[in-house]
Every structure is written in C-alpha cells, then in structure tokens.
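ok trying this again, last paste got cut off
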Amino acid sequence: MKVVGAFDAKTHLNQLLDRASKGETIHITRRGVLVAKLSPPDLSEEADTRNLAASIRKLRKGVLLGKTTIRELIDAGRHY
C-alpha cells in the first residue's frame, strides 16, 4: 500500500493507474487526510454483471404483451 498526496496523484495519475492495474492499492490523501483509494478492479463484480444482464435478457424473452402493441403503450404514456 502506498500513500500519495492529491497533487502528486494528479501529476502522476498514469503511473499510479499502471501500478493499480498490477495489483497495488494506493491511498490518496489531501492535507494528510485519506480521501480516496485507488485499487485494482474486482473481476468477480464484472462477471456478476454479465450474468445479471444475461438473466434479464432471458427473462424478457418470455414476456408477452397479449393483444396490446408496444406502440399503444408508448402512445398511452405520452401526455400532450
């Protein structure tokens, strides 16, 4: 874990991003007070998001409108 001041973080953001992408966590401070943490991405969150999107797409395939059309729903929602 590395601690960096806000000014230095702004100045050297590219290098800090490279270090974070390699697994390092960097704490950013302003006047000695911790204000942010730069850390590598949690790849499990990305996989969960993909699974959730796939589940929503699968669920939508089974939804039917009956005799109502999408155009009728759109027009019913418009208020002139």
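PB: full thing came through this time. The longest helix spans residues 43-61.
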